[in-house]
Design goal:
Layout: E1 5-10, E2 13-18, H1 28-43, E3 49-54, H2 77-86, E4 91-95, E5 98-100, H3 102-109, E6 112-116, E7 120-122, H4 136-144, H5 146-155, E8 159-160, H6 161-166, E9 172-174, H7 178-191, H8 209-223, H9 229-242, H10 245-260, H11 263-277, E10 296-299, H12 303-314, E11 319-322, H13 326-346, H14 351-359, E12 361-364, E13 375-378, H15 384-397, E14 403-406, H16 413-417, E15 426-431, E16 440-445, H17 451-463, E17 467-472, H18 479-496, H19 500-510, H20 516-523, H21 525-538, H22 548-554, E18 567-568, E19 577-578, H23 582-592, H24 602-622, H25 629-639, H26 649-656, H27 658-672, H28 680-687
Parallel strand pairs: 2-3, 3-4, 4-6, 5-7, 6-9, 10-11, 10-13, 11-12, 13-14, 14-15, 16-17
Antiparallel strand pairs: 1-2, 7-8, 15-16, 18-19
Bound molecules: (S)-3-Hydroxyhexanoyl-CoA.
Length: 705
């Protein structure tokens, strides 16, 4: 036996207990241990039944994701599961916590399965760019039917134990200790004289498989055309409906290996670990305890403020929403109600849950009402003088220890903190619009933000179900600072000869959720105008700027809200149409720069925009504004519509090869000027043949103990 797998003989029952914290991933030691335990149980004449349980918080959470991309080590999981299924003595698995991926596949290989009532089971491999590669695509349809199998395998969402019972995925539910339940069930099997019952010997139920498969195929091809794994998931389920188990498993294996070797798998696994890494803050002492946050407040009842208040209410945290006057307050509260009502209409929220959440939002107009709250998030107009007023008042009324947070998207957090006598309690919580929907939260660490406040901000992010990423103070933090470079280059492309359709189209083909011009039309061109003005004032005079956005603003073409911007919109319709008034604007902008308009190719468009992100990302990394390159990736994946299957801009650059990226950046520098000055870190890593992922900054912008 190995350390992680223990075999006990309790009368006629062999109890196999796996203990591989934190999530009982099925790494090589577990696979070896399971196979040994099973062979020993099979060989022991006294053993008449086998019970399998996991120690700790959960049943197996799946294959060990860290092993993907490494040389394979025997035994492979399908081999272990085949041995379990072939066992001549009945085997029962008792599931608690989550049985995911390979974990559920092990359970499906067992002859009987019971699950604790609060357990979840699922095949989430597709989210990692994979398909269930240890029999899941063959055994699940045999138990649950094609429709349910497609839903679970192509969608990747786990289901609760009760639903699993309904679909024959488990045989019975239990409460309490999995070990006791497994032993009791195994004993019952013996008492009732029940032998092995092999899922693989069943045939797939139902006669409409071909139709279901064709429909799902068409839907996936339309909805996620760039994704590699979902169509292969469907092909594997299709094999289950046509082939005997052994051949189906072979087909599954082929398809699994195609996914395993695809760049999309590498990118999605990178995204998985990036999310887990982000919560780790290098210089935060392990003993740091977050503060208790029982109540919160939000200043400002605009779209952002209301969205933030809803985030707290959705997480069950009572929140005060402050507006300056009664009328504005009522408008804000109505906005909160309207937002929830949309979810009710869509069926994702019940009427009673909406009322429960809205009841957690208390409208106030007086700062005195904030005296006792634990955390305040300011979401007022982006103007330093306005922020000053707000923070001075908060400093005057809030209790000691209250956290004062700003939702600023670009202003200097250190300056804001200096408006208070407690800069150590000030932190940035930069939500993204719509705040109640977008997962990203940039947690801005000021020069004097205390460890406890930073830890609390990260904990709050988790509680609000956000992807919280620590960033340092600089203009635009990580996301918007990079976006500025991206947007500017997109606009330079318009001056060189592209149309918004071409630029947006090329970037959408790359995988971006939306093109930059459609995004600008959506948020309003006037939004960026103040930022552009500020940038011009602070950036070196020899840098030239594109002028298309300013020309459109001057002509009152502000995007969707005026019905015309980079595109034209019919009333009540958000479909971007060609704006005939744009061509003269583009021509004038090109003429002013002395540029002859040319046809640009898609690759050039994509490189110009993406490498602008990457070059700036490299500067951000070197300055310690982001802790690690995967944090930058996470910001782009969760806040800017970057395709998860590309892993984020920095991972993408790593996968292209930093030497190639640098060569293009240098060319652009020679041709387009100093915006393209290569980041020193990019030059260094390219010269050393290294990647961003493998590099750690030596310092970070936070200072305070
Ligand atoms: C698969 O099974 C393929 C098979 O079909 C075919 C094989 C042939 N491996 O998320 P947390 C680590 S594909 C390695 O913070 P939670 C994680 O990195 C797999 N490590 O906890 C973290 O480490 P650290 C299909 C793993 O309680 C720690 O565990 N399965 C794995 O919020 C805690 O994780 C999945 O896709 C793993 N499989 O959530 C399930 N899983 O502390 C993936 C976790 O060093 N996992 N870690 O940062 C999850 O969805 C969540 O982790 C889970 C727990 C719900 C289990």
């Amino acid at each position: 036996m190995t350390d992680v797998v223990r075999l006990e003989r309790l009368g006629a029952i062999a109890l196999v207990t796996v203990n591989n914290p934190p999530v009982n991933a099925l790494g090589v030691a577990v696979r070896q241990g399971l196979l040994h335990a099973l062979r020993a149980a099979e060989a022991d004449a006294e053993v008449r039944a086998v019970a399998l349980v996991c120690a700790g918080n959960t049943f197996f959470a799946g294959a060990d994701i860290k092993e993907f991309g490494q040389p394979p080590q025997a035994p492979a999981l399908p081999e272990v599961i085949a041995a379990i299924e072939a066992c001549t003595k009945p085997c029962v698995a008792a599931i608690h916590g989550t049985a995911l991926g390979g974990g559920l596949e092990v359970a499906l290989g067992c002859h009987y399965r019971i699950a604790r009532a609060d357990a979840k089971v699922g095949l989430p491999e597709v989210k990692l760019g994979l398909l269930p590669g240890a029999g899941g695509t063959q055994r699940l349809p045999r138990l649950a039917g094609v429709a349910k199998a497609l839903e679970m395998i192509v969608g990747g969402q786990p289901i609760g134990a009760a639903e699993a019972l309904e679909h024959r995925i488990v045989d019975e539910l239990f409460d309490g200790d999995p070990r006791a339940a497994a032993l009791a069930y195994a004993q019952r099997l013996l008492d009732e004289g029940r032998g092995p019952r092999r899922t693989g010997e069943l045939s797939v139920p139902g006669t409409d498989s071909a139709e279901l498969i064709a429909a799902r195929h068409a839907e996936v091809a339309k909805r996620t055309p760039g994704l590699f794994a979902p169509l292969r998931c469907i092909a594997a389920v299709d094999a289950a409906t046509r082939l005997p188990l052994a051949e189906g498993l072979e087909r599954e294996r082929q398809l699994f290996l195609e996914c395993l070797h695809s760049p999309q798998r590498a990118a999605l696994v990178h995204a998985f670990f990036a999310e887990r890494q982000a919560s780790k803050i290098a210089d935060l002492p392990a003993a740091t305890r977050p503060r208790e946050i029982a109540t919160a407040a939000v200043i400002g009842g605009g779209t952002m403020g209301v969205g933030i208040a809803l985030c707290f209410a959705n997480a069950g945290v009572p929140v005060k929403l402050l507006e300056v006057g009664e009328e504005a307050l009522q408008r804000a509260l109505q906005r909160a109600r309207d937002t929830c009502a949309v979810s009710v209409r869509r069926g994702s929220l019940s009427e009673s849950e909406m009322e429960r959440r809205l009841a957690l939002i208390a409208g106030v107009t007086d700062y005195a009402a904030l005296a006792e709250v634990d955390l305040v998030v300011e979401a007022v107009f982006e103007d330093m003088a306005v922020k000053q007023q707000v923070f001075e008042r908060l400093d005057a009324v809030c209790k000691p220890g209250a956290i004062l947070a700003s939702n600023t998207s670009s202003l200097d957090l250190n300056q804001i903190a200096a408006f208070t006598r407690r800069p150590e309690d000030v932190v940035g919580l930069h939500f993204f619009s719509p705040a109640n929907v977008m997962r990203l939260l940039e947690v801005v660490r000021g020069a004097r933000t205390s460890h406890a406040v930073l830890a609390t901000a990260m904990a709050i992010g988790k509680r609000l179900k956000k992807v919280a990423v620590v960033v340092g103070v600089c203009d635009g933090f990580v996301g918007n600072r990079m976006l500025f470079q991206y947007g500017r280059e997109a606009e330079f492309l318009l001056e060189e000869g592209a149309t918004p359709q071409q630029v947006d189209g090329a970037l959408r083909t790359f995988g971006m959720a939306m093109g930059p011009f459609a995004v600008r039309d959506l948020s309003g061109l006037d939004i960026g105008q103040a930022i552009r003005k500020r940038q011009r004032a602070i950036l070196p005079a020899h840098l030239t700027f594109p002028t298309v956005a300013d020309r459109l603003c001057a002509a009152g073409m502000l995007g969707q809200k005026t019905g015309v911007g980079y595109y034209r919109y019919e009333p009540g319709n958000r479909t971007p149409l060609e704006n005939p008034a744009l061509a003269p604007v583009l021509e004038a902008a090109s003429r002013e720069k002395g540029l002859e308009r040319q046809t640009l190719d898609e690759r050039y468009i994509v490189e110009r925009c993406l490498y602008a992100l990457v070059n700036e990302g490299a500067k951000i990394l070197e300055e310690g504004i982001a802790q690690r390159s995967s944090d930058i990736d996470l910001i782009y994946l969760n806040g800017y519509g970057f395709p998860a299957w590309r892993g984020g801009p920095m991972f993408y650059a790593d996968s292209v090869g930093l030497d190639k990226v640098l060569a293009t950046v240098k060319e652009l520098h020679a041709r387009c000027g100093d915006w393209w000055k290569p980041a020193p870190l990019l030059e260094k890593l390219a010269a050393e043949g290294r990647t961003f992922s493998g590099w750690q900054p030596a310092h970070h912008s936070g200072e305070q103990a």
